[in-house]
Amino acid sequence: MHELVGALRSYAWGSRTALAELCGRPVPSAHPEAELWFGAHPGDPARVQINGHSESLLDLVSADPQRELGSVAGEFGGRLPFLLKILAAEEPLSLQAHPSLTQARAGFARENQAGLGMDSPMRNYRDENHKPELVVALDRFEALAGFRDPRRTVKLLQAIDVTELNPYAELLDAQPDSAGLRTLFTTWIALPQNALGTLLPKVLDGCVRYLSERDAGFDGVPKEFTTEVRTLLELAEAYPGDAGVLAALLLNRITLEPGEGLFLAAGNLHAYLRGVGVEIMANSDNVLRGGLTPKHVDVPELLRVLDFEPLDLPKVHSEVVGNGVYRYHTPAAEFTLTRYELSPGDDPATVLHGGPGIALCTHGTVRLLQGKSELPVECGHAAWISATDSEIRAQALDGSAQLFCATVGAN
Question: To pair with 345 at 20 to 30 A between CA atoms, which of 128, 139, 303, 397?
């Protein structure tokens, strides 16, 4: 086991305080800090500290996949199959979806054949992998994820009470299924700018009216769609004139409390709104954007990727598998994530039976033990566990601690 130093990513939607505070650095940071990558993705690999020198995890794995990855090396082409992150969103991320494995391979080959450079803003596929992903909230985490039951969306459109929305509500009411959602989403995302510039302000005026009207009964209970309507107004303020604001009307509005998870399979349209979480995904950076961004939006390719089946709230409830041990089950073969709540004074607990794996501390300080060796891991820091490492145990130091362990999936 070795210390693993994450790669810090700065995006405009990131926070100047969250990651800095988590990692014990001065606040505020010089730039918005959005993600801390612990993995071996070519875009920004983490670095392993070995005998006083630093080496890229990507180079370490590539030099000897069998030693670092063990029996799963062949299954995943000699690459670490997952990417672990800490994500800190101060502002909404783009509305986006990720391709299936078949779509990613075809799209990557197609864009290579077209001669698109890897850094081209017109490129959709930066690798040939899919990107199922799981995020677990470290604090209150807000998101849009998956298409809502169309019947409830019809109620929302009617509640906003804007004449210009009536044809769209009638369209979806007549076909309350995936086909109706596809038609309505396609219509909105492809609206000419002049039509969008007429419709969107009227919708926002309707949202303001909805929030300003007092509830029937005057009991102080929020109206049914208060959260959804407020979110729409916030998105419109952040991305004025963006068709993605209308598209957000079709999606589930989700709040995760600390420890709750959200799993997103291929084709699920989503946008993280705010919050800090641990995120794990297949080792990919493929994103098809649908709005809420100044970046490239490829509508035809997005429509090929999207899954329009209505989705129940896609929360992942952790399974208690031991005292203070919580496992998040997903269908992804590339990863499994387990959370350990460690109490002061407890005996060391086995957290990994060997690698490949990454142990990430998100609260307090943890001592990792392997035989007679030990490695202290502070909050916001991690350790790389290779396939040659034997049983890894963990113990809280100086108070309670929280540890996330990422390994290859059981499926």
Answer: 139
Q: Residue 363: what pLDDT?
A: 98
3-state secondary structure the chain: CEEEECEEECCCCCECCHHHHHCCCCCCCCCCECEEEECCCCCCCCEEEECCEEEEHHHHHHHCHHHHHHHHCCCCCCCCCEEEEEEEECCCCCEEECCCHHHHHHHHHHHHHCCCCCCCCCCCCCCCCCCCEEEEECCCEEEEEEECCHHHHHHHHHHHCCHHHHHHHHHHHHCCCHHHHHHHHHHHHCCCHHHHHHHHHHHHHHHHHHHHCCCCCCCCCCCCCHHHHHHHHHHHHHCCCCHHHHHHHHEEEEEECCCCEEEECCCCCEEEEEEEEEEEEECCCCCEEEECCCCCCCHHHHHHHCCCCCCCCCEECCEEEECCEEEECCCCCCCEEEEEEECCCCCCEEEECCCCEEEEEEEEEEEEEECCEEEEEECCCEEEECCCCCCEEEEEEEEEEEEEEEECCCC
Q: Checking phi first, is residue 371 left (phi over 0); if not, alpha (psi -120 to 50) or beta?
A: left
CATH architecture of 319-407: Sandwich (2.60)
- CATH architecture assigned to 7-145+255-288: Sandwich (2.60)
Residue 70 has a CB neighbour count (10 Å cut-off) of: 17
207 contact partners, CB below 8 Å, separation of at least 6: 160, 229, 232, 233
CA distance 395 to 379: 13
Look at residues 317, 172, 315 and name the one whose alpha carbon lies nearest to residue 250. Answer: 172
Same fold, 7-145+255-288 and 319-407: yes
Percent with pLDDT over 70 in the chain: 97
Domain ranges of the chain: 7-145+255-288, 148-251, 319-407
Length of the chain: 411
Catalytic residues: 289
Which is nearest to 147 in space by CA: 313, 311, 303?
311
Mean pLDDT of 298-325: 91
- Tell me the C-alpha distance between 12 and 180, whole Å: 34
Question: pLDDT tens across 118-175, in order?
Answer: 889 889 998 899 999 999 999 999 999 999 999 999 999 999 999 999 999 999 999 9
Statement: residue 21 has pLDDT above 60: yes
Q: Global pTM?
A: 0.94
